[in-house]
Design a protein that fits this description.
Elements: E1 6-9, E2 18-21, E3 30-31, E4 44-49, H1 58-61, H2 68-78, E5 79-89, E6 101-110, E7 117-125
Parallel strand pairs: 1-2, 1-4, 2-3, 4-5
Antiparallel strand pairs: 5-7, 6-7
């Protein structure tokens, strides 16, 4: 469900939808921290996130690593009811009921030989 009405967090630039990144050099649509998204609630059909997830990325990120629960909180605020949230991470992220979401799927992703298996966590806003 990639459309012009999708939000891509930690993404730099993308051809689809709106991209948000803290790094201005990544050429995002909007330069912002994921915890302070400048969008109204229920704006997007889908939110995708591929955050930094390990200590060795912390220097490039320039701050504390984003916690999956914080990412889900931010995404669930800006996605519309029935909209999807997808987060690529090294953990299976719990479904936090306080965000009014349900788990739709977990897909294992292998990004190359000798890499850690990552989980594409998919949720739907109720």
């Amino acid at each position: 469900m990639l459309s012009g009405n999708s939000l891509h967090l930690f993404s730099g630039s993308t051809k689809y939808g709106v991209s948000v990144d803290r790094n201005v050099n990544a050429n995002p649509t909007v330069v912002a921290d994921f915890n302070h998204l400048p969008f109204y609630p229920n704006t997007f059909d889908a939110v995708l996130a591929d955050p930094p997830y390990a200590d060795h990325w912390q220097k490039q990120w320039g701050g504390d690593l984003p916690q999956p629960k914080q990412i889900l909180r931010a995404a669930s605020r800006v996605v519309r009811r029935g909209g999807l949230i997808g987060i690529l991470h090294i953990i299976v992220i719990p479904c936090y009921k306080e965000f009014n979401i349900e788990r739709v799927a977990i897909h294992p992703i292998l990004c190359g030989p000798n890499n850690v298996l990552r989980a594409f966590n998919v949720y739907r806003k109720l």
